[in-house]
Amino acid sequence: MKLSNAAGLTVALAAVGTPAAASAAQRHYIARGVADVSLNVSPWAKRNAVEGACTGVGPSRRDIIKRKLYASYRCTVKSSNGGESRGVVLVNTTGPESVRVAKVESGQLSGDVPIGAIPAGRPRLRSIDLTTLVGQSAWARGKQLFGVLCYGVGSYRDTENAMLFADFVCKVRVLSEEPSILLVQATGRTSVRVVRTLA
Asked: Exposed, middle or buried: residue 178 (CB in 10 Å: 0-12, 13-18, 19+)?
């Protein structure tokens, strides 16, 4: 088990798994703050115009600082623009920093919104690195960015000091525009490219 930082937040993250690309059958146990970030940055959250707060359900494990980690969370969601309660969803982890909506338990909400194909790449960066690097990308030229929050997806490498990913989902706020949900790939240790807009 290693500790890393959730993207853009001062939140420690612990993942339980092998230091290699995750197999489809592998379960990942993550901290509550990481589940919240993954849900709220997702294309699903933008499509439904919601944000949520999650509580772990089912079997748990503990990280090295004795916090509980879960592979499933129940999340209460509210309107992102007004705070009105919208319902409850169950999410399952799909990686060390990512979740997907497995079930809508209440409310008029859509099912999961897949991010689609993830390009192959070399795990190079932490999610928190994207906070600066997205603003330096070709996609950001001419835009006034005032907020970037990301989580890692796809292949990863668990190092001594951090969890490194090749690809990321990022919520990017641009002045005078609606937030964009982007799929971003690391192209070097200090560079990224926007693969496509997800929402």
From this structure: exposed
What is the pTM for the complete model shown?
0.86
Question: Would you give the distance in Å from CA 116 to the centre of its chain?
Answer: 14
Residues 68 and 131 in one domain: no
For 89-136, the pLDDT digits (tens) are: 999 999 999 999 999 999 999 999 999 999 999 999 999 999 999 999
174 and 93 both lie in a single domain: no
Out of 54, 74, 106, pick the residue that ends a domain: 106
d(CA 136, CA 175): 16
Average pLDDT, the chain: 89
User: Where do the H-state alpha helices sit in 2-69?
Assistant: 32-41, 43-48
Domain membership of residue 113 (yes or no) is no
pLDDT at 83 over 90: no
Q: Please provide the DSSP assignment of 101-124 as one string.
A: EEEEEESS----------------
Domain of 40 in residue numbering reads as 2-106
Within 10 A of 59 (CB to CB), how many other CB atoms are there?
Answer: 11
Mark which of 72, 106, 140 sits at the end of a domain: 106
Element housing 187 (H / E): strand 180-188
